[in-house]
């Protein structure tokens, strides 16, 4: 006999657990299926989350998952021009992503969520052409009026639903090492731009302590392992590599459509990550809360139609984040086509005009459209538009 629940959530990552907990708190039965035997493993995340963003999605700081706090970021150009953006308070937490996910899982279970580990959704269960839950890897059917796909990057079920998955050209392989015996500024993150280390993305150094750091990069060109080894060898030659983790970063923005009748896609699998950095805990969390409200309301009103869910979910999350995703996507597309020499020119403008103060006052780790628009309108930036256009033309021709 098929099992039944009000909502089935596929994947016990942050987006899945945040949505599940919020629905359960409304009094509904929620079942989360996680293919791995333990939540949070394997970990695929750089683990840098903004203080304000975490608060926005209703997650309080907890010493169980917070490893460090940072107040500043240093940006390095291809020729190693450097500027620093600094705040007077903690701007981001460095988190242990496995422990973070496990914290969310405990909160979800305490709220009444049924969490099933070591079981994966093999395919979607359909009744008269409508998705009604899932069929798991044991051929058991779990029926539900609402199904939420929160598989994460590389999810396999979305294409089976009929929705268009994230374009593979916007999915970048990422690799990072946990380094020990390094000299780092404990309260500052470092970001390195340019084709030398990370074509079409950047390399990062995230301090986890006074003598340890999480160092990684992403790129869709070249051998990712060789690129990272070169970066570490040149910048931390005496470090000790304690651990290595691989993952995927999505930079193309959201998929065209994120819901069907009785079905919603949330988080990385829906492309709800920041195209500029690939971060998705906060943006995915915001969308997960919208999905939770939509699911609860749809069940209460016995209406899980496409029109109803589109209004409650698709329209609402795009109203909140659509403009942000759009402008960050534009910035990502332009950045990917810039030459290293043009990137250096942009760094020179920031340094010459002391734009760091404006970035500090107007910048936001999660909502970047405002500062991106302001910087793009600067007269000094406008002067190098012909150079930028030249880079774009060369990139398009090649």
Structure report:
- The protein has 398 residues and is of the alpha/beta class.
- It is 36% helix and 26% strand.
- The protein has 12 helices and 20 strands.
- Helix 1 (14-24) runs parallel beside helix 3, helix 1 (14-24) packs parallel to helix 6 (281-300) and helix 6 (281-300) packs antiparallel against helix 7.
- The mean pLDDT is 92.
Helical run tally = 12
Instruction: Report how far the terminal alpha carbons are from each other.
Output: 57 Å
Q: How many runs of DSSP E, i.e. beta strands?
A: 20
Low-confidence regions: none
**Global mean pLDDT:** 92
Largest β-sheet summary: 7 strands, mixed
Relative helix content: 25-40%
Query: Spatial order of the strands in the main sheet?
Result: 7-6-15-16-17-14-18
Give the overall shape, derived from the CA principal axes. globular
Rg to the nearest angstrom? Answer: 22 Å
Label the structural class.
alpha/beta
Beta-strand percentage?
A: 25-35%
Spell out the key features of this protein.
12 helices, seven-stranded mixed beta sheet, alpha/beta, six-stranded mixed beta sheet
Summarize the structure.
The protein has 398 residues and is an alpha/beta fold. It has helices at residues 14-24, 51-56, 97-110, 158-161, 224-235, 281-300, 306-337, 340-352, 356-362, 369-376, 379-383, 385-397; strands at residues 3-4, 7-10, 30-34, 48-50, 66-70, 72-76, 82-86, 92-95, 114-117, 121-127, 130-136, 141-143, 146-149, 171-180, 188-193, 202-207, 212-218, 240-250, 259-260, 263-265.
């Amino acid at each position: 006999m098929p099992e039944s629940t009000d909502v089935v959530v596929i994947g016990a990552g942050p987006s899945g657990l945040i949505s599940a907990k919020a629905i359960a708190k409304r009094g509904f039965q929620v079942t989360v299926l996680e293919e791995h035997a333990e939540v949070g493993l394997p970990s695929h995340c750089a683990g840098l989350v903004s203080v304000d963003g975490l608060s926005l999605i209703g997650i309080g700081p907890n010493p169980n998952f917070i490893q460090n706090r940072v107040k500043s970021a240093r940006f390095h150009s291809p020729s190693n021009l450097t500027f620093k953006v600094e705040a007077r308070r903690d701007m981001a937490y460095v988190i242990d992503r496995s422990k973070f996910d496990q914290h969310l899982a405990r909160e979800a279970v305490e709220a009444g969520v049924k969490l099933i580990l070591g079981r994966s959704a093999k395919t979607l269960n359909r009744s008269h052409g409508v998705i009604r839950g899932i069929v798991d890897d044991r051929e058991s059917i779990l029926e539900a009026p609402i199904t939420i796909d929160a598989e994460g990057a590389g999810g396999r079920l979305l294409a089976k639903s009929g929705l268009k998955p994230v374009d593979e050209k916007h999915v970048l392989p990422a690799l990072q090492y946990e380094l020990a015996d390094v000299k780092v500024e404990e309260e500052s993150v470092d970001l390195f731009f340019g084709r030398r280390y990370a074509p079409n993305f950047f390399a990062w150094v995230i301090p986890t302590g006074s003598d340890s750091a999480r160092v990684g990069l992403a790129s869709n060109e070249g051998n990712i392992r060789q690129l990272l080894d070169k970066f570490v060898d040149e910048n931390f030659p005496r470090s000790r590599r304690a651990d290595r983790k691989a993952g995927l970063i999505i930079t193309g923005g959201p998929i065209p459509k994120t819901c069907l009748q009785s079905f919603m896609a949330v988080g990385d699998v829906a492309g709800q990550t920041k195209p500029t950095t690939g971060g998705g805990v906060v943006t995915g969390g915001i969308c997960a809360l919208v999905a939770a409200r939509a699911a609860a309301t749809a069940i209460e009103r016995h209406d899980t139609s496409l029109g109803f869910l589109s209004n409650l979910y698709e329209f609402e999350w795009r109203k909140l984040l659509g403009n942000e995703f759009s402008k960050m996507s534009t910035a990502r597309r332009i950045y990917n086509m810039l030459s290293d020499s043009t990137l250096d020119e942009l760094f020179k403008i920031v340094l010459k005009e002391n734009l760091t103060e404006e970035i500090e006052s107007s910048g936001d780790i999660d909502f970047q459209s405002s500062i991106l628009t302001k910087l793009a309108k600067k007269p000094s930036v406008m002067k190098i538009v012909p150079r930028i256009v030249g880079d774009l033309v060369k990139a398009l021709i090649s």
